[in-house]
Amino acid sequence: MTLLTAPAEPIVAHTAPGLTSGRLPRWAPWALLAASLVMSIAVFGVTSGGTDLVDFNIAGAVIVGVLLYMVLITVVSAIAESRRKATDRLMTALVSAAFTIALLPLISLLWTVVVNGVVRFDAEFFTFSMRNVVGDGGGIVHAIWGTVLITLMAALIAVPVGLMTSIYLVEYGRGRIAKGITFFVDVMTGIPSIVAGLFIYSVFALFVRPGISMGFMGSLALAVLMVPVVVRGSEELLKIVPNELREAAYALGVPKWLTILKVVLPTSIAGITTSIMLAIARVIGETAPLLLTAGFTASLNTNLFSGQMMTLPVFAYNSYMNQGTSADASVARAWASALTLILIVMLLNLLARLIAKWFAPKMTGR
Length: 366
Fold this sequence. Notes:
Blueprint: H1 27-47, H2 58-80, H3 83-117, H4 123-127, H5 141-172, H6 175-189, H7 193-207, H8 215-239, H9 243-251, H10 256-283, H11 288-293, H12 312-321, H13 327-359
Helix pairs in contact: 1-2, 2-3, 3-13, 5-8, 5-10, 5-12, 6-8, 7-8, 8-10, 9-10, 10-13, 12-13
Membrane topology: Multi-pass membrane protein
Function: Part of the binding-protein-dependent transport system for phosphate; probably responsible for the translocation of the substrate across the membrane.
Transmembrane segments: 27-46, 58-80, 92-119, 139-169, 181-206, 212-231, 263-284, 334-356
């Protein structure tokens, strides 16, 4: 009796791609980029004399190095891989370079604000106001309270109005009324912030008294700027909710208002929350409308309906424009208030992501 055995399979060694395997290894683009930058820096170092770092053009060296890298990666990829892959690598390099160039101003801005603002990040700065302070010292506790209260009230006014408007436009709006609302929302999107402040100030000057300033007026001015942002963002997110979800609810006999409340809004709550945070971030740094409506003060005021209130953007503007007896201390307070405002916006965005994660519909497997 003969036993038949299967032929042994050949052993194939799996090796990393090399320069001659039709595909560049992963380290090749990074090595070419490093080599390009080194050569460019060396050339610029020789042309600048190589003794004084002040005369060294680092921006020019980086730009020339990146251009040299694009040429090298295209040529090497065309030789080792193919023309199509070389074109792909060139486009990848171009897009990466464009993204880096677009990111540089933001990085530079954040770095400048952090370096100049962290100087005054101390306990006194966050626990004291500017009352009776004319030189060094003082803090922004009154500006933080003013910013939080005015922005919170603006959100409480603008978010329900904007969300209900977007629901009407998507679920109910038809004909001339919907077109008119859409037109006015588009017009409001381009309104300068100073116009919103002048509008609120004029209304209160006519119906209350001229020269009045209080935090609630600032909230109304910010709400005017927030409403079109909330409407536009929520409208687009409600439109992308699949109609099959609505039709399934209607087939079960669920009324339309309950379908919107229980199906449409929970499905798009993550995106709606993001649009609300974008609207808040859009208005929390406004200065011009708050100068006209909320005014400015050196004391702490938590009453939105009585007296002037200080906000962080107005505090930064006032500290820089009116430097008083100690210019360095005033400018340091301005930078620190700007950094505080950035941190508040960052915390609001993190909170929005957490809320979106908590309330987003849970996807379960079958």
